[in-house]
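hiii so um. not sure if this is the right channel but i have a protein structure encoded as C-alpha cells and i wanna go backwards to a sequence. like what aa goes where. can anyone help
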C-alpha cells in the first residue's frame, strides 16, 4: 500500500496501491489521488511504471611512473557501471483537456507486472585504501503526473517505489543435505564413520526471521564431535558493460555454535538461525545474491564433516502510514 504525495498551493497528488507487496506476474492496482483547492487547467493524469537494475562500482588499480630506479606507485580508481531495464511503460489514466473543479478525485489504475522479474534489492559499501564504492540496486517505480495546462505552469508529480518479490516456485522443497564420512585422526587414521543429515523447516524466509535447521547426527566413530557449527555464507555478483565485467563480494554473514555429539552416540537437534541480513536473495541479469548454509561437525584433529544447503531470503513487507493525503476524506 504505497503512498507518497507532492503538493502545490492549489493541488495535491498522491499514489495509493492496494497491496504492500507484489510478485512477478501480479496485477498492480490502486488509485492516483488528486485534491484540488482551486480551479485548475490540466490535460491528463499519467502513470509511468518502470523496473530496472543498476550497478556501479570502483576497483583499485596501480600504475608505475618514472625511471626503473625511481618508480612511483600511482593508485587510482577504475570505474564500472551497468543498467538493464525490465520494462518502462506509460499509461494515460484520465484525459481531461480542460478545467478541474475544486474537490477530491480518485483515479483507478492497473498494471500487469511481467513474469520472471527479480525482487527488489539494495547494496552499498566502500572498501579498500581508496574508499572504492560498490552500489547495486533493483527497483520498481510508479510515478503519477498531473499534466497541467499553461506554458509557465509546472506539472504536479508523485512517485513511490513498489516492493516486488521474486515469485517462489511451489514445486521446490526445503533444502536437504547429507554426508557420511570416515573420521580420520590427523587426516589418515580411521576411527569409524559419522553421518550428518540436515534440512530447513521452510523453503524460504524473510529477513529478520528465525530459520530452524533440523540436524540428525549419528556419530559411530570413536572421536567426539566437539561442536556443531553453522556458517551462513553470502555471494553477491554485480555485472557491468562488456564481456566478463563483474565484481564479486563473498564472505561469512552469520556464525553460530551448538552442542556436539559424544563418540558412539546419536543426536537430533534443532539449530535456530536468526536471519539478520541486510540484502535479500536476488536473481537479476546484472545483480545476483545467493545464500547458503555450511553445517559442520567439528572434530578435533580430524577433518570436519560438512553439508552445504542453499537458502532463499526475501525482503520484509514495508511499514506504510495510513495517511493518504493530508485533509483527504474517505
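sure thing!! here u go:
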Amino acid at each position: 500500500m504505497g503512498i507518497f504525495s507532492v503538493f502545490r498551493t492549489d493541488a495535491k497528488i498522491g499514489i495509493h496501491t492496494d497491496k504492500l507487496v507484489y510478485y512477478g506476474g501480479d496485477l498492480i492496482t490502486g488509485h492516483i489521488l488528486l485534491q484540488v483547492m482551486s480551479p485548475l487547467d490540466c490535460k491528463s493524469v499519467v502513470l509511468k511504471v518502470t523496473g530496472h537494475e543498476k550497478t556501479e562500482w570502483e576497483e583499485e588499480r596501480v600504475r608505475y611512473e618514472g625511471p626503473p630506479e625511481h618508480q612511483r606507485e600511482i593508485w587510482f580508481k577504475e570505474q564500472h557501471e551497468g543498467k538493464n531495464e525490465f520494462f518502462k511503460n506509460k499509461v494515460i489514466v484520465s484525459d481531461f483537456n480542460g478545467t478541474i473543479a475544486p474537490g477530491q478525485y480518485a483515479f483507478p489504475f492497473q498494471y500487469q507486472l511481467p513474469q520472471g522479474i527479480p525482487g527488489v534489492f539494495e547494496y552499498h559499501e566502500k572498501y579498500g585504501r581508496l574508499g572504492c564504492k560498490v552500489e547495486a540496486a533493483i527497483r520498481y517505480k510508479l510515478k503519477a503526473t498531473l499534466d497541467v495546462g499553461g506554458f509557465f505552469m509546472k506539472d504536479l508529480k508523485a512517485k513511490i517505489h513498489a516492493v516486488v518479490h521474486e515469485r517462489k516456485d511451489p514445486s521446490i522443497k526445503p533444502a536437504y543435505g547429507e554426508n557420511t564420512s570416515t573420521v580420520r585422526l590427523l587426516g589418515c587414521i580411521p576411527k569409524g564413520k559419522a553421518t550428518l543429515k540436515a534440512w530447513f523447516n521452510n523453503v524460504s524466509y524473510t529477513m529478520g526471521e528465525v530459520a530452524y535447521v533440523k540436524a540428525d547426527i549419528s556419530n559411530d566413530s570413536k572421536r567426539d564431535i566437539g561442536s556443531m557449527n553453522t556458517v551462513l555464507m553470502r555471494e553477491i555478483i554485480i555485472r557491468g558493460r562488456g564481456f566478463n565485467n563483474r565484481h564479486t563480494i563473498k564472505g561469512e554473514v552469520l556464525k553460530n555454535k551448538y552442542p556436539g555429539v559424544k563418540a558412539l552416540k546419536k543426536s537430533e537437534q534443532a539449530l535456530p538461525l536468526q536471519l539478520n541480513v541486510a540484502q535479500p536473495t536476488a536473481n537479476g541479469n546484472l545483480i545476483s545474491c545467493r545464500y547458503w548454509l555450511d553445517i559442520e561437525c567439528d572434530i578435533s584433529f580430524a577433518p570436519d564433516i560438512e553439508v552445504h544447503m542453499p537458502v532463499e531470503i526475501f525482503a520484509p513487507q514495508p511499514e506504510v502510514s495510513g495517511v493518504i493525503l493530508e485533509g483527504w476524506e474517505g
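oh and The domain at 3-54+84-165 is CATH 2.60.40.640 (Immunoglobulin-like).
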